[in-house]
From TrEMBL:
Coiled coil: none annotated. Keywords: Signal. Belongs to the UPF0065 (bug) family. This is Tripartite tricarboxylate transporter substrate binding protein. Gene3D superfamilies: Bordetella uptake gene, domain 1, Periplasmic binding protein-like II. Pfam families: TctC. It comes from Allopusillimonas soli. The keyword Signal applies. Residues 1-32 form the signal peptide.
Length: 331
């Protein structure tokens, strides 16, 4: 091969590389503009029938109607939601694999020694879908009416007051730990495998108090089997207007709750995440959808990807400090 031929071949290869790169740049927005052109799957890190699953199926159904493509919900419970979300991380960043995340997404990095992915860098937030408030519950026979009453009882008779958590490293667990940190209570925290057994023991008087979501505890409260002494939101709940918030109870900057939101693999085109976010905001503004969520005691939200990312980051910082100060670790 002559020098001239070699130079010509190199020039052709360079031209080909430039053309292919240009085509890739042009094709990505074009693909995003055609989105979606085929079925979508939504991975859920929780079992069927739970609140996370209910939210996911509601969102999937509404996305199907508005995007004119099937949205299949796949339940992959395990590892605090990490099993499903790790599959999302490993999927192609094209908007055809989504994940319905919940509060564990922000808590797991704080309590788990080993995470299979980087929460903020390996996932693309799409939209916060809904939040759910927390109750601070006690057994009625305990004889306390306020948070201060509970704190005083714990300090006067520490051997008689036991807090409970519905799962290791959950919002319920870290909220109980935060209450101890902020009040100086020395009460032990009994960690259960689910809300149901914890609530049963609370009603039986085997434990004294616990944080749990409003949907999980409301029926027992209505039956008089449990008593609410505070709620964890910024405002009192319309269903319990006489119950003060934790902040009104003297705990400054003490807001706790669970949440659910949609995520995609990192690198998903902004056109796609913005499209999904816009559709979800539209869905959650529909009166009938709002009503369905509120019947489940859920607060409809709907945010931009940037707003949801900021929300996750704030949650991570809050729980990281609690987990570190309370020495909560999951191996």
């Amino acid at each position: 091969m002559t020098f001239a031929q070699d130079t010509k071949n190199k020039g052709l290869r360079l031209c080909y590389a430039i053309i292919m790169a240009a085509m890739a740049i042009i094709s990505e927005p074009a693909c995003a503009q055609d989105y979606p052109s085929r079925p979508i799957r939504m991975l859920v890190g929780a079992s069927p029938g739970g609140t996370t699953d209910i939210v996911a199926r509601l969102v999937a159904h509404e996305l199907e109607k508005r995007l004119n493509q099937p949205v299949a919900v796949e339940n992959r419970p395990g590892a605090g939601g990490n099993l499903a979300l790790n599959a999302v991380v490993g999927a192609a960043p094209d908007g055809y694999t989504l994940g319905m995340a919940y509060s564990g997404l922000a808590i797991n990095p704080a309590v788990m020694k080993k995470m299979p992915f980087d929460t903020l860098n390996d996932l693309a937030p799409v939209s916060l879908v809904a939040t759910v408030d927390m109750f601070l519950l006690v057994n009625p026979s305990l004889g306390v009416d306020t948070v201060q009453d509970l704190v005083d009882a714990a300090k006067t008779h520490p051997e008689k007051i036991t807090l409970a958590a519905n799962a290791l490293g959950s919002v319920s667990h870290l909220s109980a730990a935060l209450l101890k940190l902020r009040t100086g209570m020395e009460s032990p925290i009994a960690v259960y495998k689910g809300s149901a057994p914890a609530l049963i023991d609370l009603m039986a008087g085997n434990i004294s108090a616990m944080f749990d979501t409003v949907p999980g505890a409301l029926n027992y409260v209505k039956q008089g089997r449990l008593k609410v002494i505070a709620s964890g939101g910024a405002h009192r709940l319309s269903i319990a207007p006489d119950v003060p918030t934790l902040e009104e109870s003297g705990l400054e900057d003490f807001r706790i709750g669970s949440w659910y939101g949609l995520v995609a693999p990192a690198g998903t085109p902004a056109e796609v995440t913005n499209t999904l976010s816009s559709v979800i905001i539209d869905v959650l503004s529909a009166p009938q959808i709002k009503q369905q969520l509120m019947e489940q005691m859920l607060n409809p939200k709907g945010t931009t990807p940037a707003e949801f990312k900021s929300f996750i980051s704030t949650e991570m910082k809050q729980w990281e400090k609690v987990a570190k100060d309370a020495h909560i670790t999951i191996r």
